[in-house]
Amino acid sequence: MPVRPLAGAVAGAALLLLGSVAAAPSVAASTAPSAPSESVTVDAQGRISDGRVTLSGTYRCLGGTGRVFVSSTVHQSSSSVGYGIGGTHAVCDGKEHRWENQGSVPAGALEAGPAHVEATLMELRPSGILLLLPVPHAVQHHDITLVDG
Fold first, then answer.
1. One-character DSSP codes across 86-139
2. Rounded Cα distance, 108 and 100, in Å
3. Residues in Cβ contact with 92 at an 8 Å cutoff, skipping those fewer than 6 apart
4. How many other C-beta atoms lie within 10 A of the C-beta of residue 90?
5. Across residues 31-43, what is the average pLDDT?
6. How distant, in Å, are the alpha carbons of 38, 59, 95, 131 from that of 35?
7. CB 46 within 8 A of CB 144
8. Rounded to the nearest 5 degrees, what angle is found at the Cα of 103, between the Cα atoms of 81 and 52?
9. Contact assessment for residue 59 and residue 39, using Cβ atoms and an 8 Å cutoff
10. Mean per-residue pLDDT of the chain
11. DSSP letters for 40-78
């Protein structure tokens, strides 16, 4: 391939990339702290049984332009490794709803006892062609107890 068309293609790709980076500040402005009407909570107890973890709580959110999910991560103080536990599709109608996430962890990774959970109400907002930007609506960190069952 001749050098000139290749250089043009590289320059065009660089401009597209820079254009998406330049647009990022406007997206960052939209991730400002959420209104008090949006929230996510974590129940004081989660369940663990044969490596299967169940976490739950409530959420409230307003409409978004993309799909919204409640995700959760759990870890215990004996380890700095966090484990993602499922994801629930959220209905953003301003009303309070329950969420429950389930997921499996490696054998022996978690046990009944104290744990720490992070729950996030996250929107995947369309941006440009084929790009989804994660926009948090609410986040909560909560110490819980994992119980057998």
1. EEEE---SSS-EEEEEEEE--TTS--SEEEEEEEEEEEEEE-SSS-EEEEEEEE
2. 22
3. 61, 62, 63, 64, 68, 137
4. 22
5. 74
6. 6, 13, 14, 25
7. yes
8. 90
9. yes
10. 80
11. E---SEEEEETTEEEEEEEEE----SSEEEEEEEEE-TT
Question: In whole angstroms, how large is the CA radius of gyration of the chain?
Answer: 20
Rounded to two decimals, the pTM is 0.72
Most confident of 6-20, 27-41, 104-118: 104-118
- What the block records as the tokens of 131 is 């790009």
> Which amino acid would we find at residue 22?
A
- The amino acid at 130: L
> In this structure, which amino acid lies at residue 62?
L
68 Cβ contact partners less than 8 Å away, ≥ 6 residues apart = 61, 89, 90, 92, 121, 122, 123, 124, 137
Token pair, residue 33, equals 């702290």
